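Q: I'm writing up a methods section and want to include an example of the input and output format. Could you take the sequence below and give the corresponding predicted structure tokens, formatted cleanly so I can copy it straight into the document?
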Amino acid sequence: MTSESVTRIRAAAILVLAAGLLLSGCTGDYGRLKTNAEWTEAFTKQLELPDYNYYYCGRENMPYAVVGIDSKYTFDDRLWHKIDSKADVYQRAAGVMVWNDQWSRGADILDPDGNRIGIWFSYYRNTTVKMGPGNTVAVFNPYQASPWANYMDNDQMP
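A: Here is the clean output for your methods example:
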């Protein structure tokens, strides 16, 4: 092998190692949502929900999302509002459906190991779920500005 070949192999190995380190650092403490039709049905038909602590984010009458967090976890609720009764949980879920009832979906909120730590209901399909020290969980506000926002003042929507 020539010294040029050795240099190329070393450079490729360093790039692969760096990419692996970057990717592993991005996955460590993050959970995810996993669509679950059971929760869609429970929220839309007001069926029995788990005995979790419930919160909503967004407007009181038209929230972006409703979450239920298992009481084993401490919820970082800086951007969320506590819901005190099951009747209010269903009322907030109905508010989610005002935005778009055909797209509203339920999901399991999973920790990095795939264990369910809560449930989700929103017309948004994803959000960030971050685990913190001492069983703390943060679920980020899913709001995303519309990609059509630039077209709202005129009739040029594609």
